TrEMBL record, chain A:
Keyword line: Amino-acid transport, Cell membrane, Membrane, Transmembrane, Transmembrane helix, Transport
Positions of transmembrane segments: 12-34, 40-58, 65-86, 98-117, 138-162, 191-211, 223-253, 259-280
Protein name as it appears in the record: Branched-chain amino acid ABC transporter permease
Similarity section: Belongs to the binding-protein-dependent transport system permease family. LivHM subfamily.
A Pfam family: BPD_transp_2
Family annotation (InterPro entries): ABC_transp_permease, BCAA_transport_permease
Localization in the cell: Cell membrane
Domain of life where this protein originates: Bacteria
Topological type in the membrane: Multi-pass membrane protein
Keyword Membrane: yes
TrEMBL record, chain B:
Keywords per UniProt: Cell membrane, Membrane, Transmembrane, Transmembrane helix
TM spans (from-to): 56-75, 81-104, 158-177, 210-232, 244-267, 287-309
Membrane topology: Multi-pass membrane protein
Localization of this protein: Cell membrane
Protein name: Branched-chain amino acid ABC transporter permease
Database matches in InterPro entries: ABC_transp_permease (IPR001851), LivM-like (IPR043428)
Organism whose genome encodes this protein: Bradyrhizobium denitrificans
Length: 290, 323
């Protein structure tokens, strides 16, 4: 058996990785809550954001955390364009259409990256990549501590945007009552695209937080996408606090199951949670009753 | 909508068989075998995703069940290949019934159903990858033994014939669906589940039957895959690639049609080979093209190539009359 210190450290590191998961899930759940679509391209878009961060850092020597400031607007614009000009028109507003178009997009993105960058994994090494933070007797990974803090800050920011700004109000109005919102003069396609754009900007933040301690290859996003779906379903599709708590929970579960089951079998804990949640309570912990 | 007649299906199958013996090169034979395997997997997907409107993103679960049954039964228990094929197909139906029982009892559909099938396939992949019984991460190598009893042939054309035969069975199953009460129930379910239920359709039972048939067909494709390539591992058998290709072929060809999956598989894989050749081996180019075709076909021809061809065919004579 492991000593309590190792277990606690692993769980805390899992909790902080969970925060970054939560950030990825935040965009997904926002998009679901407003557009009522499952965005299968979310993982691939995360990969795009990670490659952008990598490019900015490798080419211009920028710090990955500062790169977020460059990449977030780019991802925002990309997200807006994708929803407004591709996903929206191509899916004819049908659920199945959206599912398939975003799946198609994820395959296009993944393989375009593969053609451009080959399947090599790329990393950014910073002088703080392996630094640890001492918390009493516990040693915590520095990039993860930063990730945890930034995630909380981003969640608060997102909440403020949704509740204090005009576009936030429009987004919430469309989420609640699409027809009513369009009757009072809100452009629904614009709000949809803005929501998608915000979701993509969240991915840029997540990418910046991941890069100092993680690698990127064209398939990286795929590894995160099911985890993100699990979090969204667990937290309740469309619920922002749900995504945050779900993410933290999944991070801990993953850390615990890979500690006790080993790395390859460790992932299974997440999928079992996913399946059980879908079967027993598909509305999740915080989701409204359908 | 005109439904293809059995005679038309017979002609198509006969044509495929003739092509098989038309002196194709080894590479083309291999491609055609692969096309038939994917077509069969897509036919399975089509029963559930096309006719019943339940899009699965995890048909790899069935494909892998078939492939692993074939490999494990032969290598570990010395079971005859043909018997293993039958057991593999039955296992596919069983896995379908298992996933179906859990998901349909909870009333999952739409994106929830897509997600849970994906999760089941991933669980299967992780288990097969870490369990020694299934060869772990190293996978399973099947023994090369040619001859009819071993379902392996020195002449690849005979194996191609077997795959064509299986696709023919898939065609007949779909044809039967379009002419049976059960098939009508499926379509009713897809169009309006509540209305179907109100009219007395036992929705749960119909869905269960559909997923079992769907699983069996896709598992058959997995069995043939294992038998053809004589090697499988978890990423091949339960990998998301097969879930995606089965779905792509059915949708691009025309979901909910008899010929859609077959046409889709031939067109997609044909185009895939073409782009591989033209792009000079840049990785991912064929899948890139698949993705673009999927988005384009959802955008411009949501009913698939079959319907596109039909509508073009109907329009052409009308124009001729005008002229």
């Amino acid at each position: 058996m492991y000593s309590p210190q190792i277990v606690v450290e692993a769980l805390l590191n899992g909790l902080m990785l969970g925060a970054i998961y939560a950030l990825i899930a935040l965009g997904l759940t926002l998009i679901y809550g407003v557009l009522h679509i499952v965005n299968f391209a979310h993982g691939a878009l995360l990969t795009v954001a990670m490659f952008m961060v990598w490019l900015v850092c490798a080419r211009y020597g920028l710090d990955p955390y500062l790169a977020i400031l460059v990449v977030a607007p780019l991802m925002f614009a990309l997200g807006y364009g994708l929803q407004r000009f591709i996903i929206g028109p191509a899916s004819h507003g049908k659920d199945n259409g959206i599912l398939l178009v975003t799946l198609g997009l994820s395959i296009i993105i993944e393989n375009a990256l593969l053609a451009a960058f080959q399947s090599d994994t790329r990393t950014i090494t910073t002088d703080y990549s392996f630094r640890v933070v001492e918390l009493g007797p516990l040693l915590l990974s520095f990039p993860r501590v930063v990730g945890f803090g930034v995630t909380i800050a981003t969640t608060i920011l997102l909440w403020l945007v949704l509740h204090q700004t005009d576009i936030g109000k429009a987004i919430r109005a469309v989420a609640k009552e699409k027809l009513g919102a369009s009757l009072v003069g809100i452009s629904v396609p614009h709000v949809y695209a803005m929501t998608f754009a915000i979701g993509c900007a969240c991915l840029a933040v997540a990418a910046g937080l991941l890069m100092p301690s993680f690698y990127v290859s064209p398939k990286t996003g795929a590894a995160f996408v099911l985890v993100a779906f699990t979090i969204v379903v667990l937290g309740g599709m469309g619920s922002i606090p749900g995504a945050l708590i779900g993410g933290l929970l999944i991070g801990v579960v993953e850390a615990a199951s890979s500690l006790f089951l080993g790395d390859s079998l460790g992932q299974i804990g997440i999928f079992l949670i996913f399946i059980v949640t879908l079967l027993v309570r598909p509305t999740g912990l915080f989701g409204a009753r359908a | 909508m005109t439904k293809p007649r059995l005679a038309t299906l017979a002609i198509i199958v006969a044509a495929l068989a003739v092509i098989a013996f038309a002196g194709l090169s080894g590479a083309l034979l291999n491609l055609m075998i692969f096309m038939m395997i994917i077509a069969l997997a897509a036919q399975g997907w089509n029963i559930l995703g096309g006719y019943a409107g339940l899009s699965s993103f995890g048909h790899a679960a069935f494909f892998g069940a078939g492939a692993y049954a074939m490999a494990v039964l032969q290598t570990r228990f010395g079971v005859n290949a043909w018997i293993a094929l039958v057991i593999g197909i039955a296992l596919g139906a069983l896995v379908g019934a298992f996933i179906g029982f859990l998901s349909f009892r909870s009333g999952l559909k739409g994106s929830y159903f897509a997600l849970i099938t994906l999760a089941f396939a991933e669980v299967a992949r992780i288990l097969a990858n870490s369990w020694n019984f299934t060869g772990g991460a190293a996978g399973i190598l099947l023994k090369l033994q040619t001859g009819l009893p071993y379902l392996q042939f020195a002449d690849r054309r005979y194996f191609l014939l077997i795959t064509i035969g299986c696709v023919a069975i898939g065609l007949v199953v779909s044809w039967w669906l379009e002419h049976s009460r059960f098939g009508a129930y499926l379509v009713a379910l897809r169009e309006n589940e509540q209305a179907a239920q109100a009219l007395g359709v036992d929705v749960f039972a119909v869905k269960m039957k559909a997923i079992a048939i769907s699983g069996a067909l896709t598992a058959a494709a997995g069995c043939l895959y294992a038998q053809n390539y004589l090697f499988i591992d978890a990423n091949v058998a339960f990998g998301s690639w097969i879930s995606i290709e089965a779905l792509f072929a059915a949708i691009v060809g025309g979901s909910g049609t008899v010929l859609g999956p077959l046409i889709g598989a031939i067109v997609l894989l044909g185009l895939g080979e073409l782009t591989k050749g033209l792009s000079g081996g840049i990785p991912g180019m064929d899948l890139l093209v698949f993705g673009i075709i999927l988005v384009l076909s959802v955008a411009f021809s949501p009913n698939g190539l079959v319907m596109l061809m039909k509508s073009l065919g109907l329009r052409a004579p009308a124009k001729a009359k005008e002229a």
